[in-house]
Amino acid sequence: MPEAPGAMPSGAARRPEPLTLRAAARVQRQVIGALLLRELSTRFGRENLGFLWLFLEPALLGGTIGLVHHLSGRGLPGGVDVLSFWVLGYIPFFLFRSVVNRAPVAIVSNQSLLYHRRITILDIMLARDLLEGAAVLGAMAVFVLAIGLATGTWPEQPAKLVLGMALMLVLAHGIGLLISAGSVYTEMFERITHMVTYLSLPILGSFFMVFWLPTEVQKMVLWMPTVHCFEIVRDGQFGSAVPTSYDVSYVLTCAALLNLFGLAALRKARRDMVV
User: Fold this and answer.
1) What pLDDT, on a 0 to 100 scale, did the predictor assign at position 154?
2) CB-hemisphere CA count at 13 Å for 201?
3) What is the mean pLDDT of the chain?
4) What is the pLDDT of residue 12?
5) What would the pLDDT profile of 70-129 be if each residue is shown by its tens digit?
6) Would residue 109 count as lying in a domain?
7) Separation in Å, CA 159 to CA 3, 28, 134, 155, 233
8) Which of 75, 135, 147, 157 satisfies CB 3.0 to 4.6 Å to 54 for a cystine?
9) CA atoms within 13 A on the CB side of 90
């Protein structure tokens, strides 16, 4: 029987209906949620203690460093609380370090997932980094609560604590995208990233405040966007008790550029990958 005019030829593949924006967002959310659960199971197994370690690691490290400096009896310029300063300095650095140091193996360790049409490299990176961000933010919340209950000192502006951590995560995510893309072409990033991260610790802003430094040095360190993130976190904790220097728009600009370049690099790397 001849086919009706305009009818689809028999055996022809039917093109899938394009997703609406809402449907695409729902699919994206489901994919990232599934990747989050997979990452948890892969890194920590299915035991509750494994999941708990995700929060305990930054809490134990940050708490130990803060306690050691607190017990040393040495004060800080401006009368800054020693325990709060060191804890709130190390925990954001732990977030930055974790995201950046895991980036070189992010694609290699999850390359098989790219066989699934719905999963992209960006989905993998987002899931890993959101997991790190949630864990470290949870550890910071525990410390802020513990310090508040123990000393009666509560954050002046809790929203700025969250803002500083969020900006640090977005910055680290952008750097991680660039490192992950570069790791497709060379193993150099996997070998030097850890070393560079620790060597950069003195200039990231973790263990100093801008107002402690000479004026000329202040201008230099404020070129580092991470310094602004630490200052925002400390402003949220200490408020007007200590002077802070930061520019949110500068951090957002740096973060946007890093992420845009990172997305472009990932796109090129995906084309050159052999899956």
Assistant:
1) 87
2) 13
3) 82
4) 47
5) 677 676 777 787 888 888 888 899 899 999 998 998 887 777 777 777 778 888 888 889
6) yes
7) 65, 28, 15, 9, 9
8) 135
9) 20
pLDDT at position 73:
64
For the chain, state the CA radius of gyration. Answer: 23
Look at residue 8 and tell me if it is in a domain: no
Instruction: Provide the residue range defining the domain that includes 193.
Output: 27-272
- C-alpha 181/C-alpha 107 separation (Å) is 8
CB-based contacts of 96, cutoff 8 Å, min separation 6 = 168, 171, 172, 197, 204, 226
Looking at the domain assignment, is residue 18 inside a domain?
no
Tokens of 192: 């030097």
Rounded-to-integer distance, Cα 192 and Cα 199, Å: 10
Residue 42's pLDDT band (cuts 50, 70, 90): confident
Please tell me the pTM assigned to this model.
0.84
| pLDDT value at 8 more than 90 | no
CA distances from 213 to 69, 121, 210, 248 (A): 20, 41, 6, 21
Name the domain count of the chain.
1
Q: Is residue 1 part of a domain?
A: no
